[in-house]
């Protein structure tokens, strides 16, 4: 009996720790899956292939300098709320907000064999949601913010990283994280909202070719040498003629 009670308390403590750790990173649905299968929540660090999504508001520094802080914070919070809902809709992990930027990824803490597909569908959905926000802002007499989204797939180190007892974050580090960040910065150069690396394209090309992701235009933009990298990386512009909210019903 004593062993049973001790085991129950241990399980409850572990469930509380998982909820505390992941509630701000993933949707409630994923949190409950981790609580039910705590062995999936590897916090000590591991190497995994994931797909990373970086999103950054264009011209935000100039925008914020011309407006009252209250308006800037209000619009930024509105934007983050909408984009976070979309990330969670596609079962993504919200790593962090970096100023006006968002970093999310798929493939951890749960294994998601379709992590690249989910990230791309999320980007298209984010684009659609942003256009709804832009229409609302314009109707309210505000400036319509825009963003660029970069997506990259590759192996990273992932885990609970930080100062023990002070501040810990479940986050990703590694070369492919840096590539994703740099690729996002190319969206303005190539006049497009979404850019994918060749590594992500390789994961979804069959789906695109077979029309299983809707009507997408996947156009090679260039082969670029990303800052900090010696090996050139092919990048592709992505556009959709279909509303991604309709596509969401298929997944």
At a glance:
The protein has helices at 2-22, 28-36, 60-65, 69-89, 115-139, 175-184, 198-209, 244-247; strands at 46-57, 93-98, 101-106, 147-163, 167-173, 194-197, 216-224, 233-240. It has two domains: 1-41; 45-250, Nucleotide cyclase, GGDEF domain (Alpha-Beta Plaits, 2-Layer Sandwich), CATH 3.30.70.1230. Mean pLDDT is 85; it is low at 243-251.
Task: Kindly list the characteristics that best describe this protein.
251 residues, alpha+beta, 8 helices, globular, disordered C terminus
What is the topology?
Elements: H1 2-22, H2 28-36, E1 46-57, H3 60-65, H4 69-89, E2 93-98, E3 101-106, H5 115-139, E4 147-163, E5 167-173, H6 175-184, E6 194-197, H7 198-209, E7 216-224, E8 233-240, H8 244-247
Parallel strand pairs: 4-6
Antiparallel strand pairs: 1-3, 1-4, 2-3, 4-5, 6-8, 7-8
Helix pairs in contact: 1-2, 4-5
Number of domains: 2
Q: What would CATH call the class of the largest domain? A: Alpha Beta
CATH topology of the largest domain: Alpha-Beta Plaits
Euclidean distance between termini CA atoms: 45 Å
Rg, alpha carbons: 19 Å
Report the strand count.
8
Describe the sheet with the most strands. 8 strands, mixed
The parts where pLDDT drops under 50 for at least 5 residues are: 243-251
The H/E string reads HHEHHEEHEEHEHEEH
What's the CATH architecture of the largest domain?
Answer: 2-Layer Sandwich
Strand content: 25-35%
CATH superfamily of the largest domain: Nucleotide cyclase, GGDEF domain
Task: Estimate the mean pLDDT confidence.
Answer: 85
The share of residues in helices is 40-55%
3D shape: globular
Number of helices: 8
The helix/strand class is alpha+beta
